[in-house]
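Worked example 2:
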Amino acid sequence: MANPRKPPQFFTPPDSPFQVPYDGTFLVKDAPTGPGKNAPNTAECREQLEQLTARLDERQRVLYAQTQYAVLCIFQAMDAAGKDSTIRAVMRGLNPAGFQVFSFQAPSVEEYAHDFLWRATLRLPERGRIGIFNRSYYEEVLIARVHPEFLTRQHLPWPKDHDGLWEYRFESIQDYEKHLVRNGTIVLKFWLNVSKAEQRRRFLDRLKKQEKHWKFSEADTAERAYWDTYMHAYEDCLNQTSTPWAPWYAIPADNKPYMRLAVAQILAQTLEQLDLHYPTLTSEQKAGLAASRKRLKKES
């Protein structure tokens, strides 16, 4: 008898040096933020990414036609890590009809009135599509943990010290992602691991260039004071929620071309191991095609 707590494995998470282990041993301090010594240079990264986007386009066509699986890619990161540009670079060759992107901002009054997974459920990708979450329900165990004052808006039936809340939310997330996988949604989660020094450099670059001023707010620099607290929250979150059915990947984010290539490789390998094929027509459908072909030939 199958284990009802273990979802079926429609895919095996691609081998990657950046995959977060499932045994709770992940340490932020040991996770690289930049490419290793033998990593491809910028030109090579861009060339390889071009080749990967062609592979992604081919597989997405079949995914869209088959309508059996959905793919959900979740991106979490500190500010200026490069979520927007990575999503744009990796997905630029795909048919817009086959993927969708949602950026989660501060919850609305209506969203605060529901459980913390509700608004994400409304935006899940349909079968046949790739869905992108730029931030996600993980904000509720990250920013809400760093700033627990935000929880007062949720009117939770919890003590003021929120003892046990994060463990319960981690459990809810695991169960939620099991439910998605059981129903054919492949879940890939990317933490873009930018260093504090590189974030500072990118902030200064935004302040220098007028066309980037819209990306910056004073709150961005204020949050740097909580850097260590955020790193603790990320470490616990990734250890608690990286699973064989919904793995986390801690992607080095200090070098953007390398980061984009690493994400594209994982997504491409995932799509290529799925049992994807164009739909097979029934004998009645084939007969209908033959009849249509005959009518069209008569017109000519």
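The chain has one domain: 28-299. Residues 28-299 form a domain with the Rossmann fold fold (CATH 3.40.50.300).
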